[in-house]
């Protein structure tokens, strides 16, 4: 690919995208990472054969796409520092900084850029991510396709029609891996309580989770259909699921996701008010 991309920040999420791009045969010559930590920059250069610099200037920002990949608390300062070296150039701006709305980016970086905001999750680090994406009205169809092709290198993508829906994405896929980790943790503890040793419990739980996810993805059936297929009336699975129903699992999950979405909204307000 000849599209030039600049990553502002070389942390885990940026690294996952850089790895995905290189595995998808994007040229390392077209990828530049602005990373103030020189040691981290050297590691990226050595590991992925990309260009790295410690600070931005008008030459490094001469790119088709700029990916903002810094911590949300740092983003205002970083954006304001990019304004002068960017000059009159108008690259596509892709932000993977959680919780920072496009309104903030417009205020700090400029109102007349085309902005894409996305919410990746941690499995992106192994190429198995799920990323929700929103594009503002200034983004062209070609830029939308370009953003999708970049983000797809770390996993699947899903576009939302309204920026506010990224809070729902955060509550679903952004925070979602931790929900499954917590459930696996509880299952492992339950297996140990029933007498299995820790290693056996862990392996059985993790591979059961993997198998269930693969069945849900590959079968084409929705989870409720799959649940019904493996639940015999009066059987062991039904006995376990009856306990979930008694504890109102659906309502508990809904409350948890609402709490995550609400917190995402309040964090955005806090960041803009600073």
Automatic annotation (TrEMBL):
- Pfam families attached to this UniProt entry: F420_oxidored, P5CR_dimer
In short, the EC number is 1.5.1.2
Pathway assignment: Amino-acid biosynthesis; L-proline biosynthesis; L-proline from L-glutamate 5-semialdehyde: step 1/1
Q: Name one GO biological process term.
A: L-proline biosynthetic process
Q: Does the keyword Hydrolase apply?
A: no
Identify the keywords attached in UniProt to this record, alphabetized.
Amino-acid biosynthesis, Cytoplasm, NADP, Oxidoreductase, Proline biosynthesis
InterPro entries (alphabetical): 6-PGluconate_DH-like_C_sf, NAD(P)-bd_dom_sf, P5C_Rdtase_cat_N, P5CR_dimer, Pyrroline-COOH_reductase
Detail which positions bind NADP(+): 69-72
Alphabetical list of NCBIfam families matching this protein = proC (TIGR00112)
Family (UniProt): Belongs to the pyrroline-5-carboxylate reductase family.
The name on file for this protein is: Pyrroline-5-carboxylate reductase
Originating organism: Salinisphaera shabanensis E1L3A
> What lineage does the source organism belong to?
Bacteria, Pseudomonadati, Pseudomonadota, Gammaproteobacteria, Salinisphaerales
